[in-house]
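Task 17 of the worksheet. Students: predict the tertiary structure of the chain below and write it out as structure tokens. Keep your answer in the requested format; marks are given for formatting as well as content.
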Amino acid sequence: MREYWTSLASLMGAVAFLQGVVHAVFPAELRAAVARLLGRATRAFSPYCYFDVTETEGMGTNEIYDAVQLYLSSSAAPAAGARLTLSRPHNASSFTFGLAASDRVLDAFRGAAVTWEHVVAPRQAQGFSWRPLPEEKRRFTLRIRRGDRGVLLPAYLDHILAAAADIRRRSQDRLLYTNARGGAMDARGLPWDPVPFKHPSTFDTLAMDPERKAAIMADLRDFADGSAFYERTGRAWKRGYLLYGPPGTGKSSMIAAMANHLGYDVYDLELTEVGSNAELRKLLMKTTSKSIIVIEDIDCSVDLTNRATAAAAAQPPKPRASIDGGAIDQDAAAAPAGAAARSITLSGLLNFTDGLWSCCGSERIFVFTTNHIEKLDPALLRSGRMDMHIFMSYCTFPALKILLRNYLDDDSSASSSSAAAAATMAGLETWIDAAEITPADVSEVLIKNRRNGREQAMEQLLEVLKARAEKRPPSAAAGNATGGGDNEEEEEEEEEKRALESPKEGGGEDGQDEETEAKKQLSE
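Model answer:
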């Protein structure tokens, strides 16, 4: 054993002597050139390709480095014995994991295996700089087989960027934006004011028939996953939803459920704060992708009512002579002082939702809500602007069961365990359609009686339903009690039909005759 250590010491001394001779005889430039040649020769016969993703690119950050770090923290599998770093970014709702220095992680894409290594090296001392660089140089090294290069690049990097963007969006708190200053910019050059979006509504708690909810959720998922479809068909990646129905039927809750389901931010556009079509376009340009743009109560925001109905209903006033014999424009005299300054028009709103300016972003949803669909201009309702019309009806029995589960922790099987509970549930099913009560009113009754127990709260709700049904006309109550959902669907179809066909009823020769008669009166 002693001879082994003596031989090893002699060998190390010889190596040190040769290293000193090499450093003394051969200059550093020559040694570096030889090292590069040996490295190239080794890589030429290696079955792998190596790609470095540095943390910085010049004086700026490398977007791919941040994306790789996010992607590997959730999608890839760490190698045996790898050490992970735990962090939680600002304004994030979940933790993220990252690779420590010199650790590796394994991944696969389209059947090809890849290896990522996180390399951290100290940076050489730098002189004075207005923007000092970090003390360490960080990079990810990607190793793939040469035969898989055509399969992985650039599709694998595109996949990483898309996955990282989705992770970043879902880990951060969603935001609710409003245009409190109209179209004016703040100090950061943004016209929107954000606040955290904490609405808890989901499709599981939304009071709506399960079949209709499933159809809406499927439509939303098809939209979110339809990038290739919209690109192939040449359509802008956007979709419009019109929510209409009586007040208190859950239109705002539906919007919150859509945002929580997709993980999108919400832009609440207040049209009364917008002064012109140019400001409207400016607001649209400053919205982000993967967002929902909402205009609530659009029939009450600005004058966007049905043009044909308004023209048929309005009679031209008889001109009143002034002192000098001229005619006074009564409309101009009656208009408020600020009406001329506000110039947002129906055409501007139509271009906002379906014009060229609506294509300045991607993956955006437009949602309009109204209590009176018949008041809206048919141009707003056509496909391409409002693609899906969702009628938010009065509370039905399937929706009532969801509300009972939400507020009373009630299940249909549990409610039928006793004869009294079963009778109460049967009465609720009988009277719910005849009462024409909104989910908001049902929720208020259940909230007030939730401390009294499940059965007593249901009995109180049954009394409220009976009282509301008795106040309604007997014919209407009987029709709802017998027809149920069929009458509701017929009413929905008739309401949409009247809204879409109204321009044909109000236009034509009658409008031209009235305009001609008004001109004759002015000339006289």
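Marker's comment: The chain has 22 helices and 18 strands. The CA atoms of residues 6 and 310 lie 107 Å apart.
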